[in-house]
Amino acid sequence: MRNRYPVWKNLLILTVLAFGMIYSLPNFYGEDPSVQLSPSRNAKIDENVVQQIEKLLTDNGVKTKASELNDKRILLRFNDTDTQIKAEELLKSNMGNNYSIALNLAPATPGWLRAIGAKPMYLGLDLRGGVHFMLQVDMEAAVTQAQDRYAEDIRTNLREAKIRYLSVERDKASIIVKFQDAQTLAQGREVIKKEIRGLLLNVLENDLTIIATISEQEIREVRKFAVAQNITILRNRVNELGVAEPVIQQQGEDRIVVQLPGVQDTARAKEILGATATLEFRLVDSEHVIGSDGKAPLGAKLYNDRAGRPILLQRKIIVTGDQVVDASSGLDQQSGSPAVFISLNGTGAKKMLDTTKESIGKAMAVVFIENKSETKDVGGQKLTTKKKVEEVINVATIRDRFSKRFQITGLDNTEEARNLALLLRAGALAAPMDIVEERTVGPSLGKENIAQGERSFIIGFALVAIVVLAYYKVFGIIANLTLVFNMALIMAILSSFQATLTLPGIAGFTLTVGMAVDANVLIYERIKEELRNGNSPQAAIYAGFDRAFATIFDSHITNLLAAIMLFGIGSGPVKGFAVTLTIGIITSLFTAVTCTRMMVNWMYGEKRGVKLWI
Amino acid sequence: MNANTRLNTQKNEAQPRLYKIDFLGKRHVAVWASIILSLASLVSLGVKGLNFAIDFTGGTVVEVKYKEPADVNQIRLNLEADGFNSPMVQQFGSTHDVLIRLAPQSGVSGSDLRNRVMGILNKDPSNTAELHRIEFVGPQVGDDLVTDSGLALLYASIGILIYVALRFEYRFALGAILATLHDVVMILGFFSVLQLEFDLSVLAAVLTIMGYSLNDTIVVFDRIRENFRKLRRGDVIEVMNISINETLSRTLMTSFLTLLSVIAMAFFGGQVIHNFALALIVGIVVGTYSSIYVASALALKLGVSRMDLMPPEKEGVVDNRP
User: Fold this and answer.
1) pLDDT tens across A509-561, in order?
2) Model ipTM value
3) If we measure between CA atoms, which residue out of A37, A372, A102, A32 comes closest to residue A260?
4) Is the pTM of this model over 0.90?
5) Class in CATH terms, B20-52+141-309
6) Phi/psi at A406 (nearest 5 deg)?
7) Which residues of B touch A437 (CB under 8 A)?
């Protein structure tokens, strides 16, 4: 008999191996110290800017290794960290106003690999240094805010319908509305039922009281929105920090993880993350023009819009953020175009009505204001300065007079409507967040961790390889080759998913070496046993693979079960371990069974009466 | 049943086989050893408990490197003078490296704490400290992690139970799961007796060992099932003994190889994964033993018989060898 695979099977295996080899390559090229520029406001990035930067750097004697331009940023590579830091300082002082400039470690993947989409693995915070925050959104506060909004809504609606009520008060979990007599109670009930959605009404006829509770579904919505909204706010702020490759993710029901690689100054990061925001509605000043000196004329105030264009607004504020009760995005019922729906409370509604009835046809702007504090170390003294960042997020023409509820249309798409609604809510009613976990890893520790991880992996691998070789001889060589292929495959898969490599992840690699070789051991021991039983070498090979397979499969499944459970707990590092282990278990099933078989076939499959070196 | 029993096996076996080591004959010794060690572990867990890391308890860990050898006692006194309750200050790696653990404090944010602690650590201007790592975990996060971890262990056990019960038989499943839990208790006991720090990565190691130890157990069970079907003669104990002997070289080889890579991790992987590697070492050693002894002995005790593992309709071996 002969042991051989059909040609297609060999080709398939070789293709997979080639994929593994090629796509794991980027991990071996290391990284270039680099500086990245991204435009912060109206600034453009194009070839001219690149040339300008290159001129600036060469004039100051800083040598760049390469510069790259893509639609979002300019990346400048340097030969060492000294020049990188020098370049960063130069760029910050010369171009820092319009660009956010961040230090980065850009993968030094050669062009031909990048062309086929091969990228290195992403390094976790424990390997590259940085800060990790976990923020908890205060859900109770979010729900209380919602209740306050509903209470306010009930008051306005009753007032508008001219129904007299004694009181509207918020209790722990419900809103209690009290009436004078049975008639107003009945009328009030009708109005609330008709006008306000998402409330469950419990009418106590005897006490002349309605107890309104927010429905479960609505509370779920409120909670979901509170997190989504805070993520949007955080994203905006992190972008300002100019961090290369930040991670902002929801974790669990009410937590948000923010990871800022390379950031060491946690105090500053926290100041930016912890900023508070508010809103102002103002009329656009169309009577004045911006002065030749770039300053605003009397009675007007100069702002920038999101694209960085200057815009003049009147000094008078119509409504502020604390008067906004709700903002949500949806579709305009008449035109079907994306719109943002805004509700104001009583005071806001009155002011809005007063303004709009005289201003039909004029433009109104929404200003988003962030209050930040910045701490600087001046001569050993800590100085905290408050900073206000104001930005016009929307300008719309007033089509009609309105008060409590109105909508903004003319938005480009639903995405824009959603973002505007989120920003409006962020300025008005963002649920508070607390930092519940904070981890900082110094850059030197990151480097140390990589070095130790690599060293332990190489030593572990070498030890295993030597023992396997000594014990299984020629088959040992095959097993070791298989191990190398397996490692390459794991690396390639992690790289293509852009998974994060952590120190426990490296430990996962090391452990996989031991576990992956198990499949080979199972097969080889079986072959040896078959040989001892007096079978011919070819029959022993066949039976060895055939019979070991069920066992290998079973044992891999159990390992996989445990590894998958690991996903459920913890974040970051341990997940990294779970990912590596899971992929390692799956790939080792492939490499140990099919690759080993292919090589054994090539080696021995065609020969009769050979002696197996096992 | 003695060590030299010869068995005449099926006709297609060219040679009669013998097993060298009478594992199950000595199972009583093993069972007692396991019971005593498990009880000792449980007692230690009950009395001393685990030395949970801040992942679980909340609190702050600061890791710094001093330029000159550091005076741990002085640092502790300085911290206490500033109002930190019983701070844990210890050296690790070298006399320059200091690790500080602080209990969770209410109403203090991470960065305030960081500034305060670094201020205290840098009191002596001639020997300043470089911050390597600072971790602050709120108590709520720790509580949630304890719950999540418990659930993960539970789900892993249930998943394993179901899988083994489907693939084999419920008595084997029970044997396997008890053997696995036996390993978990041993690792926890080891960490409790020595009061080693139990952090999230150690928990990861525990879950990994569950899979690993089960892997070993399944290889043995697989062979037991195969031999039940193949060998017409021999009672349950004989068949099990043969199976364990047949798989012994594989079990030892794999455990040895995995141990090699894990030992490399423990010695060269650095502080962060040291306890993780240690948990794996203990787990692999105990897991190897338990899959040889505990799992089979338990299945035997639960009354597994030949009939339980026979394929439903066909009898005998399906041999498709060429």
Assistant:
1) 888 888 888 889 989 998 998 998 888 888 899 999 998 888 888 878 878 88
2) 0.81
3) A102
4) no
5) mainly alpha
6) -150, 170
7) 135-138, 141
